[in-house]
Design goal:
6 strands; about 800 residues; about 5% strand; 2 domains; two-stranded antiparallel sheet; mainly alpha; 33 helices; four-stranded antiparallel beta sheet; homodimer
């Protein structure tokens, strides 16, 4: 048990650590070489060009910039909320509000608790006399444990529990109302986007002698005659996507070798085809990759042909578009078919939010998947120690020596051996915790959610259960989750709050240290971005071959909501549980919230680039988790007081959870529809405004390709990009063009002259271009012939007149 | 503890009792005097006229009819399901299916259980050796208790648990699918009715300077421009309804005295105005009532004027009608407003299903009401013994003697005293159980549901909790619910299934007796209709003055779903719990289901007249209660086996509840939407068919008065009836009319001549008629002036040209 002094030392070390991190950050962030690690969002938003701040120089030599190590703070705070929403989207802005909500809740609570409860607790002064068998620290003098059992002082704690609960609920209500308003406002002021007019229809029944698109068309023409516009079939393009990815990789290598050759025209790059270039036939790299790409192109073309023509490649899912937001809102919120497992309609997620792989799961399979995954999550939360213990028992030194006898001499070295013996057992656990979010994400994917945002929300909720049981309860009851489960079954329910209640004040110092190590240091690590920094520079050294690669190596990612939300919710839980019990913990939480707020504000402005925009769809979850924390805090207090011989507390405390539950239900019915449904009033208003401002808008063409599988889009973009690159290259290599003698139209013709070869590449690209166009033209005609009524589903080059 | 012989005796007595009841019924039902008690539905359906089977004779003298005492059975079975739906509605037909479902589930289960489990249990033969301290009956030799602990025979019980669960789930699935289909078919083949086009809108916001109807009109014209037709405001007519009721009562008395006077023209009826005609001024009854009626008429008129003109009488609720089922389905299923607590839309219940008093409850109040009522139900279920014990402690003999000393001589008589002492303590409990359904119904009303059908469903679910805790658990654990609750908190959760599991086989004989007494005798009582029989004849003797009164005294009522569903569900629970444990209980349940099926089929055909039609909306509840019963049976078996040292059973049994829960979730998502939503496909199809068959239908006039407060309808009917009566009387009293000399047009003019007076009544009535018409005309014009656009809300005499 830590005394106040121990805690002070720990705090000092952690503050020092955070300070060092901040200093490091201050130094690293102004190095131009790190610019893409610390400001990727600005690059993406186009606010910073590739040659910003003399990117040619790798190191910043301007000394005076080194002294302003907190200079990022004002910059982070300067942006208003509106600008922030504009810059990074509503998700990010609302994510930040979780931190301010924490501050809003806990600052007044802390002030009241420190002013009222600490004096009460300190003057209690009976703890040491009464229980000599338990070790108590100085912290306990400030906590509720210091009050003598049966004392009337507990009335003050009870009162405070009421005050804190009401205050929290009040703030929660305010915040829910604000966020709901922000969401509606955001949706209302959003520019026209495809998802406003689109509904995703799943489980389309197969009608024999009809194609899926015909079935959909007929169904919606019949049941939504006034507003139905069109539909976009979903193709099972997974194999196609794989091929395109493969081609991309090859193209990259080709680019690399061509650049290399350009720099050293005296030597054509060669290599071996076998594994990692170690074995196999020696070939000319440029020729080799070109040949492989052309071969892939043919396969891609035939695969695309298959996808477009094989009725089996069309999935029983469709994106149905309407001519007004009203029509889409109606279709998304109503039941279509007599059989409620068919024609399931829902709002289409944003195109970039769609998780394409899950679209085709049938209803029955979905219900089984959900069931199995919920069992799996339960098992994971409560029994995750079993496989880890198993791995640990395998992964001992003897096992390793048996499997890999050649390592024996190394292992037998004494230092290595002791290190490994200390390290190995923990390794499995560390590894497990590291991959846990990924595992949970995979589980959510198996469950069959069709949008990335819902996948992240589901992952967050699974992770929360894990943290709640294994971090919070696990630390308090000090046992594995499995032991907790066992005691839950074999102890009377009235015993459980007592067990928790008694242990809670004793674990206060542990959680203070936890907040410092996990919270403070975690945030400092967050701003320093150690992992992305290292990865970026590693990539830069080994993998990056072209400017495009560098851009890709930048990869700012989104805020990892799946991990961050649960840990934030854990801090709320700690704050609420300890507010009455050991109020001295609150300052630690407040420091965390304030610091994290600053850091995340900076990161959101400069680093993260949200993959999708869900318009704060995660807020109801945050809200209900905080409510759950309130309830847990009531149960704890209940158990604690019942061991403190404060019998009168039972009837007084019972109303608190009841009122909280009622409050939650009220909020749910009051605000949650704003996050699940789209009011017709809103839709109609927006339709009307749009109609007034753009009466001649052709929605059909606007929506035509919105929900194309991204892989087709990507392909299209690449084509365009290639075109652009070619033009640039032509400008650059004009002098080379003069030397160009032969003009070849045959694609597979052998070329030996380097210049001609280089030039040939342009040609081939152009030919590709032509070929593509020709092919599209053909396919379009074909599609047209297949179904006269339905519009062509794929238009690859909107700019090109067919 | 009962032996098999005891049980046999009990069964014999009960069967004899039922037989006697059936004989009595056979005798009573063919007495013409009881015709209106046993065949009211036929009167209402118009299949039987008032003078059926020589109703003039009170007693049936045709002896041969007495010998066919089961002759009602074929009649009850003859009707096909389609005819039944046509005759009594879908609710009744589906209600009967619950009984057949019981038979379908339990007949095969019984056969298998008797063939497999009984031999296994009997040959176990170890019970009496092992536990000598517990009293066991012969029944236990047939039950699972007879198998020696740790025996491998429990595998057979486990297997049977799986088989029974799968069979039950299979039947449940079949039945849910059937009922859902029947519901959709019923709705699809239903004739055009107002509720198909109407949506109830609650929580309409008050807009200053707009009347509610204008607000509604504007809102729906804006947001549903293509389908909105009109709206019907809801008036707070509670006071008006009271006045009308009062007038009705007075009118009845007037009729009575006039008839009396007609029969004995020599003596004008007189009486006193004070309490019960004992004191007060002596008056001429006909004059007195006539004066009071005319006074009431003025008050009614002014009240109606107030209701129609006072904007405060218009409630923030409206019935909004659409020009198509599609439009109504869309509006009912979507969210209208940005504020999810305003403009709440839902399907309008049938006009006769509306519970008018609850329409105006605002959203916030609703959420508080629900919360308070759920606490109250919890308290009622677990603590209902407390007030009863309190009443019991008050209602002792000393208390009565103190309050009413004049009863002392009577009470002190020894026989009376001992009777009272034995009777009084139970009285409070009996009284409580008698009024319990009413109390629960009042609670549901306070909760704020707006349709009678949902009120009944809510009552049923409350009653089910009460029965589950106080009848099922209460009998098994043998303690008050409060004690159960206490042990639930202070025993480990793993102990609870054990406690129940151990007690379950021991209570088998109790439940067999319960099934006979409550089930068999209850059903026999149901067919005999003792209470309605007595009440009808009492009314006939004392209250009935006119034919209209007799019709009203008939009052067949609806099936009391609020009480019947929970007790049926209790039988399912008993059957499922005991199927594996003590299969000998199953025949009792099967007899109950078969007998009850016959009786209710007869009653539904001949007696009950459903007040509303909810199209089997109660089925999802029945389904989930049976699922809950399955789960309870698993828990019981789990606890039982864990005390039987059958440790291997734990992992084998755990899948059963999990699979059941999954099955429930699947069924819920598969079928429940059919009971909650109206698919657009269906709506569109019906719209289209109707449009094809009746292209020139004027829906607006059809829907104009559909959702008028019933009190206005009633009034209108009365007016028409009065008109009819007057015409008849004029015919009858033509010879009297000859004597009529003076013709009076003043309404309040004093008249002394009986004949003239009698005749005057006709005049006044006609004048009323005229007055009303005039008044309506006036009001209509006024309403018209108030809002030019909105159509007049009240048209009282559609037949009269204004």
């Amino acid at each position: 048990m830590a005394t106040l002094q121990d805690l002070g030392v720990s705090a000092f070390i952690n503050i020092l650590g955070a300070f060092v991190f901040l200093l490091l950050f201050a130094v690293l962030r102004i190095q131009p070489i790190n610019d893409r690690v610390y400001f990727p969002k600005l690059y993406i938003a186009g606010k910073r060009a590739a040659d910003h701040r003399g990117a040619r120089r790798a190191i910043n030599l301007n000394l005076c910039t080194y002294f302003k190590f907190l200079s990022w703070v004002p910059g982070a705070l300067r942006m208003t909320q509106t600008e922030l929403i504009h810059h990074a989207g509503l998700d990010s802005a609302v994510y930040l509000r979780i931190y301010t909500l924490g501050l809003k809740i806990f600052l007044p609570v802390m002030v009241v608790a420190l002013l009222v409860l600490i004096p009460v607790n300190v003057s209690g002064g009976t703890l040491l006399n009464l229980r000599k068998d338990v070790m108590f620290s100085d912290i306990d003098k400030l906590s509720i444990s210091n009050v003598s059992p049966g004392s009337n002082r507990f009335f003050i704690h009870l009162l405070m529990a009421y005050v804190f609960t009401f205050w929290t609920c009040f703030m929660l209500y305010q915040e829910y109302s604000n966020v709901a308003f922000m969401r509606l406002h955001f949706l209302a002021s959003q520019k026209r986007c495809a998802d406003q007019f689109t509904v995703i229809v799943r489980n389309i029944p197969r009608v024999s002698s009809h194609s899926t698109s015909e079935t959909v068309d007929e169904f919606f023409r019949r049941n939504h005659p006034d507003h139905y516009l069109g539909q976009q079939s979903v193709y099972n393009a997974n194999r196609y996507a794989k091929l395109v990815k493969q081609k991309e990789r090859l193209q990259n290598w080709l680019d690399y070798y061509q650049l290399k050759f350009e720099r050293h025209p005296e030597k054509r790059p060669t290599g071996r085809t076998g594994c990692f270039g170690f074995c196999g036939r020696k070939v000319d790299q440029i020729d080799y990759y070109r040949a492989r790409i052309s071969e892939l192109d043919k396969r891609i073309a035939s695969e695309r042909h298959r996808v477009l023509n094989d009725p089996k490649a069309v999935m029983p899912v469709s994106f149905v578009t309407f001519d007004s937001r009203w029509g889409a809102a109606v279709c998304a919120q109503t039941q279509q078919s007599k059989n409620p497992t068919q024609w399931l309609t829902n709002w289409a997620p944003e195109p970039r939010d769609v998780y394409w792989q899950n679209l085709a799961i049938p209803f029955f399979s979905l219900s089984i998947r959900k069931f199995l995954i919920s069992i799996a999550v339960f098992a994971l939360v409560f029994f995750y120690m079993i496989p880890i213990a198993f791995v640990q028992s395998l992964a001992n030194l003897e096992g390793i020596e048996r499997v890999a006898p050649f390592l024996r001499p190394v292992i037998e070295v004494k230092v290595v051996k002791s290190f490994l013996q200390g390290f190995l057992p923990g390794l499995a656990l560390k590894l497990f915790l590291y991959i846990l979010p990924t595992v949970l994400m995979i589980m959510s994917k198996v469950e069959g959610y069709v949008s990335l945002s819902s996948l992240e929300r589901r992952t967050a909720s699974k992770y929360y259960y894990f943290m709640l049981v294994n971090v919070f309860l696990g630390s308090i009851i000090a046992g594995t989750a499995f032991e907790q489960l066992d005691s839950f079954f074999h102890d009377p329910p009235s015993q459980i709050p007592r067990t928790i209640g008694v242990a809670v004040p004793m674990k206060a110092t542990f959680f203070m240290t936890y907040i410092m190590v996990d919270g403070w240091a975690g945030i400092a690590n967050e701003i320093l971005r150690v992992k992305p920094l290292v990865i970026y520079h590693l990539k830069n050294m080994f993998i990056v071959k072209t400017e495009r690669d560098r851009e890709r190596a930048m990869d700012p990612r989104s805020i990892a909501l799946g991990e961050n939300l649960p840990s934030l919710q854990l801090y709320f839980l700690l704050g609420l549980v300890y507010a009455v019990v050991t109020p001295i913990l609150l300052p630690f939480i407040i420091v965390f919230f304030a610091f994290a707020y600053l850091v995340y504000r900076h990161q959101i402005i400069n680093v993260y680039n949200q993959e999708y925009e869900s318009a704060a769809a995660f807020w109801p979850q945050v809200h209900s988790r905080i409510i759950a924390s309130l309830l847990i805090s009531h149960v704890t207090l209940f158990g604690l007081l019942s061991t403190m011989k404060a019998a009168y507390s039972t009837p007084l405390l019972i109303f608190l959870p009841l009122l909280t539950i009622w409050f939650h239900k009220y909020c749910k019915s009051r605000f949650e529809p704003a996050f699940r449904k789209y009011p017709l009033e809103e839709a109609m208003e927006k339709d009307r405004m749009e109609h007034a401002s753009e009466p001649s808008l052709n929605l059909k063409t606007y929506l035509a390709n919105a929900y194309l599988h991204p892989i087709f889009h990507m392909f299209e973009q690449e084509d365009q990009k290639e075109e652009a690159t070619i033009e640039v290259r032509i400008d650059k290599s004009e002098h080379q063009q003069q030397q160009h003698v032969r003009s070849s139209h045959s694609q597979y013709e052998e070329e030996t002259s380097a210049q001609t070869h280089y030039h040939h590449e342009e040609r081939t690209s152009s030919q590709y271009q032509y070929q593509y166009q020709h092919q599209y033209q053909y396919q379009l005609e074909e599609t047209h012939m297949r179904s006269e009524q339905s519009p062509p589903h794929f238009v690859y080059h909107p700019g090109v007149d067919h």
